[in-house]
Amino acid sequence: MSWDCGLKYVFSVPPALQPGSMCILHDKEDLSRLEMVQRLAKDGCRFLQNHSKGPERTSEPHSDEAVRVCLRERGHDVLVLQRISSQQPALSASARGGGREEARSRRYVVVSGTPEKILEHLLNDLTLDKDQGAESDTLLDDFLLTYPVFMSTSDLCQALLGHYCTKRQRGKEDRKEDRKEDRKEALERKRKVLHLVSQWMSLCGDFLREDEHVKLFMKTLCRYVLDDLYEHPSLEKDVGDLQKVYMLHRRHTMDEYSPQRKSRALFHQLSLKENGLQPRGALRDAKEVLCHMYISMDSFLSMRVQVGVVAQELLQAVADRMEVPLGELVLVAVTYNGGRLLLQPQDRVFSEALRPVGRLHVCRKDLGEVLNPFTDNSELQQRTARMLSLNTWDVAVALTNFDWSIFDSIHEQELVYFTFSRHSSSSHTVALELLLQRCNEVQLWVMTEVLLCPTLCKRVQLIKKFIKIAAHCKAQRNLNCFFAIIMGLNTAAVSRLSQTWEKIPGKFKKLFSELETVTDPSLNHKAYRDSFRKMKAPKIPFPPLLLKDITFIHEGNKTFHDNLVNFEKLHMIADTVRLIRQCQKDHMGNSISQKSSSEVRSYIDYLHIIDNQQTLFELSHRLEPRA
Question: In 452-478, which ranges are continuous DSSP H helix?
């Protein structure tokens, strides 16, 4: 691919500095605006003009889009940048020490490159001035959200340590002023690395605290910073910020110490308890999953539990829900190869991979054969009256609170892991998978409730109730449950109940039709997107559609071009996953949670679900036989 445009300038770097490097620039003014070029030029690069001419350049404002810079090393492209006009106001000439004012407001963004060069450009482009860092912050955010696509966390740790420790080599004849300038540049580089690490920990800390590479990296980096405190005392503020974001606690104030004593004392504090990292087991046990407790061969109770739950706790919850004495119940795991395991009261149910030991069945002890599961009892088949007695707004609030507690814990990077490495990084996508699972369960719950309702008049009341609940979920900005309820009512097993739907009043049919319009998939779900865009945050999106958008970006664009990371693709992905962040909080930091009654919460927290489609169709035909 050629980015030729306008007059070309070529400069080569002396072998002593950087063997085999070459950069093609497409505008003479690029030499004064590209910081990487300036640094190389300062070190003695020779600039050679290439007299071959390319197409005529246009002076129109959009011409920046055609100006790209390609950096080559050893005959291969390693970084491609594109010039953009900065949205930040340019500094005055006096503030920069002279020069043109407007020309230097133009900057460069990454188009593609090797992981190492992208990181190098990111650090070069990074600004520590909060008033002037909007664009560099966006590039930094894109990089931190999507780096797992093209490099491992271990590689990133090693690269950051390398940039922090890099020392410039100068001859003995260098003047004192040069060495002073080198120290100044070294301090700025170190501060940029620490700023990037702080942002990294702030953004991805929940994913990283269990990573052994990150533990070692943070310990090593803190040691390096503490060694540098004597020469660069100003780094103490940066390491203090790093402490806060990585949950490190200092026991003593440092004002009474000299820089050397500060280093020793601070190192002692940072070394305590592996740099203050929580034990891996404690973090893992704090995660939650949706647990399916089968009470028949094709129906289960869905409940949210922590992954450290033991069999006794699950049996107690089921006994309370079904009003059965705990002593009559046992918990059996049917493993994936067909084996059966009777779980003891203190046996853990979930493995290290956050997966259950098998399909969990609750059985009675007095059935002779201990593995005989429950049959559907009268309490489960005749619970329609209880559902009809619940207030629809309270049910919608309880559903929304349940979804919000999951959605609020989702991190943007979970969508990246789910799309690119869902099988190898399942522990990184627990909250996202939980919300997707909840959406599917609510849909099945709607079907189960309707198809287990024995009488026609009560089924009509139940469908009316679900239509109102769906409308309330939409009003509460919970599009996850809204979609799930509408899809549950639209499934074939429910929609075929013609006698039931004929009895639905006209105003409810009209309301249902309006709600269906929002779920219409035509024109790439335009109706949903328009409606969702108008909703104020916080709000809960429909996660399958969000994953669909990211998958289309992934499948429609190559991750690598000529062995270079396609950063334009990653920018599109980062821009999409940031929707999670925008939906979770409004500008005031408010949440979407509301109060609901304990009776409704206990009902919603333990949904009885039939997950066998054949069983659901049999129930449907039993209610209204085929003509």
Answer: 456-475
C-alpha–C-alpha distance, residues 557 and 543, integer Å:
21
Map residue 74 onto helix, strand or coil: coil
The token pair at 261 is 């004593």
- State the DSSP code for 54: -
pLDDT over 90 percentage in the chain: 35
User: Six-digit token pair at 95?
Assistant: 């503030």
Q: What is the pTM of this model?
A: 0.78
Amino acid (one-letter) located at 491: T
Contact predicate 493/616, CB 8 Å: yes
In degrees rounded to 5, what are phi and psi of residue 500?
A: -70, -45
Q: Is 473 exposed, middle or buried (0-12, 13-18, 19+ CB in 10 A)?
A: buried
SS3 322: helix
Of 420, 144, 578, 556, give the one whose Cα is nearest residue 429. Answer: 420
Q: What is the pLDDT of residues 158-168, one digit of tens each?
A: 999 999 988 65
| Residue 274 CB neighbour total at 10 angstroms | 13
| Cis geometry, peptide bond prior to residue 233 (ω within 30 degrees of 0) | no
Domain covering 285-379 in this structure, CATH number: 3.10.20.90
Q: Is residue 42 helix, strand or coil? A: helix
Q: How far apart, in whole angstroms, are the C-alpha atoms of residue 348 and residue 360?
A: 12
Beta-bridge partner residues of 293? 301, 360
CB atoms within 10 A of CB 490: 14
Query: What digits encode the pLDDT tens for the residues 585-618?
Result: 876 667 777 887 888 988 888 888 998 999 999 9
Asked whether the beta carbons of 9 and 49 are under 8 A apart, the reply is yes
d(CA 69, CA 108): 9
Q: Which CATH architecture has domain 382-623?
A: Orthogonal Bundle (1.10)
Residue spans per domain, the chain: 1-92+106-114, 152-278, 285-379, 382-623
354 neighbors 430 (Cβ within 8 angstroms): yes
**Which residues are registered as beta bridge partners of 303?**
291
Going by the DSSP 8-state scheme, the letter that residue 89 receives in this structure is P
Interstrand relation of 288-294 and 359-364 (parallel, antiparallel or unpaired): parallel
Q: In whole angstroms, what is the distance from residue 131 CA to residue 139 CA?
A: 16
Torsion of CA 509, 510, 516, 518, to 10 degrees: -160
Which residues, including other chains, have CB under 8 Å from residue 419's CB and lie 6 or more apart? 547, 550, 551, 554, 573
Report d(CA 141, CA 578) in Å as an integer: 9
DSSP 8-state assignment for residue 594 = -
Give the max Cα distance, the chain.
Answer: 100
CATH code matching the domain that covers 152-278, chosen among 3.30.70.270, 1.20.870.10, 3.30.43.20, 3.40.1740.10: 1.20.870.10
C-alpha span between 41 and 43 (Å, rounded): 5
Q: What is the DSSP string of 482-515?
A: HHHHHHHHHSHHHHT-HHHHHTS-HHHHHHHHHH
- Tell me the C-alpha distance between 285 and 471, whole Å: 36
